Amino acid sequence: MTANVGYYEMLLDDSIRFADKAKKAGVDVKLExxxxxxxxxxLFALKLPQGQNAVKNAWHFISQSIHRIx
Length: 70
What we know:
- By secondary structure, the protein is an alpha+beta fold.
- Helices cover about 50% and strands about 15% of the residues.
- A two-stranded parallel ribbon has the order 1-2.
- Strand 1 (about 1-5), helix 1 and strand 2 (about 30-35) form a beta-alpha-beta unit.
- The mean pLDDT is about 85.
């Protein structure tokens, strides 16, 4: 699982702690820190490459999860 979080995210510290706890619990997680970004860059995917990347990461996670269910 890849998670995105911006450096200017209000919940940055929480995101880092969450990813660390998930790793310790055996979850394969990668936390991607996006320089200069804020909360929910996905909402700006039409204008920002960081938002496009966040949407691609979310789609990858969803598609991988669906394949595990089958």
